[in-house]
Design brief:
Radius of gyration: 22 Å
Bound molecules: flavin-adenine dinucleotide
CATH topology of the largest domain: Gyrase A, domain 2
Number of strands: 10
CATH class of the largest domain: Alpha Beta
Number of domains: 2
Largest sheet: 4 strands, antiparallel
Number of helices: 14
Order of helices and strands: EEHHEHEEHHHEHHEHEEHHEHHH
Structural class: alpha+beta
Length: about 325
């Protein structure tokens, strides 16, 4: 068995890659198959996810669109269809700023194909990113009096970063990878408006060479090294690992994982806008939070304060 420290990494290098690449890099965390990433692997990976309806992977890339529409009635009608999982602002009477994941835009089209604004967004997205939308039905119901011009453009991330803080907080997304124990990932995934992908104990076989033929555990913050409590914990992990490896001789990883404990190392990527990160940090840096959660959230807050002071300096302040 291996004992490792919990860590986090802000994946801002992912901000500058394509949407399909972003999805692949996040998606492969489930299978821990990152070694299969090459210059041509992103599109086949996305197609496979679509085919298998592994839809949460499609939440792992967002884009911001700006739509201009002179007909305010059409804008009202768009809002009346209650678009879900999209962040929508109206910076001017005829202008909309819309941020959402590939999944959210796909489902918007499926749910509201009769809306002219939705049709314009879909046409733009289909032309620009066919891989994500080409499998969807194309025929939109015709609407009488449809000669209104709606223009759509993609808002680059650099431009999102120049939005006024209240708008930027809603439209700016950030991915963070945590390597933590399974109890912490259970707590993290309770943050419903965020998107998550995590290492799957159903698919990962820790007896294989790429995992070093062993199970990795996160060092518990609660016990001092060599204390009786730590020694008991370590002995217990060794027993779990022994049972897991023995079960794997005759069963699958999804069956053998039944004996894996909370301390098991798990990688998880959380993807959310700044508003949700503020909410997570406010809750998870608090002295009332799980110490194992605070162990990664306090340094994450510090790093986000350094990078984006106007958004994070006051969040969870005093949580030391
Ligand atoms: C110290 C601490 C102790 C905890 N103890 C327990 C425990 O004993 N048992 C337990 O089950 N959980 C526990 N939790 C988890 C907690 O109940 C929340 O599930 C978790 O913190 C997620 O936060 P959230 O509910 O604010 O919302 P998030 O899911 O992060 O949502 C953020 C925002 O989304 C909106 N939202 C999302 N979904 C809905 C919805 N369905 N309806 C309305 N608004 C919605 C709300 O505006 C909310 O503010 C604990 C959390 C903490 C920090």
């Amino acid at each position: 068995m291996r004992i490792i420290e919990p860590t986090f990494a802000i994946l801002d290098e992912f901000d500058h890659i394509g949407l399909a690449e972003h999805i692949e890099r996040c998606g492969r965390i489930c299978y821990k198959s990152e070694e299969r990433i090459d210059a041509d692997s992103a599109l086949p990976f996305v197609r496979k996810m679509l085919q298998h309806q592994h839809n949460s992977v499609l939440e792992m890339a967002v884009l911001t669109l700006q739509a201009e529409c002179q007909d305010k009635g059409l804008i009202n009608s768009f809002f009346a269809c209650l678009p879900r999982f999209l962040h929508i602002d109206r910076p001017g009477p005829t202008s909309l700023l819309i941020t959402g994941s590939i999944r959210a835009f796909r489902e918007l089209w499926l749910q509201c194909p009769h809306e002219l604004l939705v049709q314009a967004l879909f046409e733009f997205l289909l032309a620009r990113h066919p891989v994500f939308f080409e499998d969807l039905p194309k025929d939109s119901p015709s609407v009488p009096g449809t000669d209104v011009h709606i223009s759509v453009r993609k808002v680059p991330l650099a431009e999102v970063d120049t939005l006024p803080p209240s708008l930027r907080a809603r439209h700016r997304f950030l991915a963070v990878r945590f390597i933590v124990n399974r109890a912490v990932t259970h707590e993290l995934v309770r943050h419903r408006p965020c998107s998550f992908l995590q290492e799957s104990q159903r698919y990962c076989r820790y007896s294989s060479d790429r995992f070093g033929n062993e199970v990795s555990f996160i060092r518990p913050i609660f016990f001092k090294e060599n204390s009786p409590e730590f020694n008991l914990w370590q002995q217990s992990m060794e027993e779990c690992e022994r049972a897991y490896l023995q079960l794997l001789e005759t069963t699958s990883p999804q069956a053998a994982r039944s004996v894996l404990p909370n301390s098991c190392k798990t990688e998880i990527i959380a993807y959310a806008n700044f508003v949700q990160w503020q909410h997570i940090l406010a809750l998870r840096c608090s002295p009332a939070a799980d110490p194992s959660m605070r162990e990664v959230m306090l340094p994450l807050r510090q790093e986000l304060c350094r990078r984006y002071p106007e958004h994070f300096t006051t969040v969870g302040a005093g949580a030391v």
